[in-house]
């Protein structure tokens, strides 16, 4: 499998994931490649042809995070300068990873770490299914000194395939989130989701929510949600919001899957340049992303579950990195998880 440590805290949280994967006996071979800003520094591009080719051939790809102020400043000064994020979007697109799964399951040990009241987050267990290769992220862009535009487009097949993933993952209900009172893409989205539901998943409940209302309900009544199905940018925003139900964005893993080929597994959080190099990064989202890789990418359910339960038990025992209100370091957090494996 391919490891893309990327930038900022990326390398610091990648090694913990490798240690955990080795300890659980997954029998994997690791190949590390520069990606994002690190790849720009070395090769002038965030995603080299070589890295793309090895990712295509791999069984799975585990990515930490990309980006940082250094490259933001370079791109602001010279718009032709590549951005680390282009590498990530390019990799998702080129591997056809249209389905991004972001499970949000606050652990009882962390109820106190969330800014939300305990009675709101108890027993929350939801999944954000985010469309990942379409919408405004990938539409045509234009820019002059006076005007800029980003096109948001969706086609029927793009909506159908992500809707199937969401209905397939739902236990009881899919909440499809759009802005159909304003956006034409959302009106098509609603229509197609409705059709897929009626034709293929009549036993699952379907509701449609406008994105502003969904954002409100996510903090007012999060237990209401089972699967949230939404387009690329709304999914980006709502998944950061949903992360706070678990206490910290440092807790949320994700899986990005296509019709075939390797999946990409990455924490929802970014490269956290402000804490890079301080030893304070929370490695748990990355470790949990490694577990998702074992489950969804490599058919190793038992090992995935073992990692998740080791994380639970470490937190039960009091493990808290600074983002969770504690003082444990990345190394201490990793040791605590390894101890329970
Ligand atoms: C995410 C991130 C990325 C996104 C950025 C880094 C381009 O925020 O995976 O949620 O917006 O998709
Ligand atoms: Mg995001």
| String of helices and strands | EHEHHEHHEHEEEHEHEHEHEEHHH
Total domains: 2
Tell me the name of the CATH homologous superfamily of the largest domain: Isopropylmalate Dehydrogenase
Overall 3D form:
globular
How many strands appear in the DSSP assignment? 12
**Number of helix segments?**
13
- Summed over residues and divided by their number, the pLDDT gives a mean of 97
Structural class, please?
alpha/beta
Under the CATH scheme, which architecture of the largest domain would be assigned?
Answer: 3-Layer(aba) Sandwich
Major β-sheet profile:
10 strands, mixed
In which order are the strands of the major sheet placed?
A: 2-1-3-12-11-4-5-10-8-9
N-to-C CA distance? 21 Å
Helix content: 40-55%
Regarding quaternary structure, how should these chains be classified? Answer: single chain
The third-level CATH topology of the largest domain is: Isopropylmalate Dehydrogenase
List each distinct ligand once.
Answer: 3-isopropylmalic acid, magnesium ion
CATH class of the largest domain: Alpha Beta
- Structural Rg: 20 Å
Low-confidence stretches: none
Estimate what percentage of residues fall within beta strands. Answer: 15-25%
Describe the model.
There is one protein chain. Helices cover 43% and strands 16% of the residues. It is built from 13 helices and 12 strands. The chain folds into 2 domains: 1-98 and 251-341, Isopropylmalate Dehydrogenase; 115-246, Isopropylmalate Dehydrogenase, CATH 3.40.718. It is α/β, with parallel strands linked by helices and 341 residues long. The radius of gyration is 20 Å and the shape is globular. The protein has a 10-stranded mixed β-sheet with strand order 2-1-3-12-11-4-5-10-8-9, sandwiched between helices. A two-stranded antiparallel ribbon has the order 6-7. Helix 1 packs parallel to helix 13 and helix 11 (284-297) runs antiparallel to helix 12. The model has no long low-confidence stretch (mean pLDDT 97). The structure holds 3-isopropylmalic acid and magnesium ion.
């Amino acid at each position: 499998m391919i490891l893309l440590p990327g930038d900022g805290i990326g390398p610091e949280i990648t090694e913990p994931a490798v240690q955990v994967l080795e300890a659980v006996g997954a029998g994997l071979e690791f190949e590390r490649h520069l990606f994002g800003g690190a790849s720009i520094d070395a090769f002038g591009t965030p995603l080299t042809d070589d890295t793309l080719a090895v990712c295509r051939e791999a069984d799975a790809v585990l990515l930490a995070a990309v980006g940082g102020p250094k490259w933001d400043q370079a791109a602001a000064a010279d718009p032709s300068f590549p951005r680390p994020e282009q590498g990530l979007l390019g990799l998702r697109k080129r591997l056809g990873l249209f389905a991004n799964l972001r499970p949000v399951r606050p652990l009882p040990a962390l109820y106190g770490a969330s800014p939300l009241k305990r009675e709101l987050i108890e027993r929350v267990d939801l999944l954000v299914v985010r469309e990942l290769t379409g919408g405004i992220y990938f539409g045509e862009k234009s820019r002059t000194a006076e005007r800029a535009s980003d096109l948001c487009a969706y086609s029927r097949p793009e909506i159908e395939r992500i809707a199937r993933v969401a209905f397939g993952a739902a236990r009881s209900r899919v909440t499809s989130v759009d802005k159909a009172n304003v956006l034409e893409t959302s009106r098509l989205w609603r229509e197609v989701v409705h059709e897929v539901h009626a034709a293929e998943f009549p036993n699952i409940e379907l509701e449609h929510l406008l994105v502003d209302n969904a954002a409100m309900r996510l903090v007012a009544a999060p237990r209401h949600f089972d699967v949230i199905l939404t387009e690329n940018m709304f999914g980006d925003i709502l998944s950061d919001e949903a992360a706070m139900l678990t206490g910290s964005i440092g807790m949320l893993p994700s899986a990005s899957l296509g019709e075939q080929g390797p999946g990409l597994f990455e924490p929802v959080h970014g490269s956290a340049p402000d804490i890079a190099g301080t030893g304070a990064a929370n490695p748990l989202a990355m470790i949990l992303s490694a577990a998702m890789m074992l489950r969804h990418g490599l058919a190793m359910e038992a090992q995935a579950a073992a990692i998740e339960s080791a994380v639970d038990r470490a937190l039960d025992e009091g493990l808290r990195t600074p983002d969770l209100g504690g003082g444990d370091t990345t190394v201490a957090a990793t040791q605590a998880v390894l101890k329970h494996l």
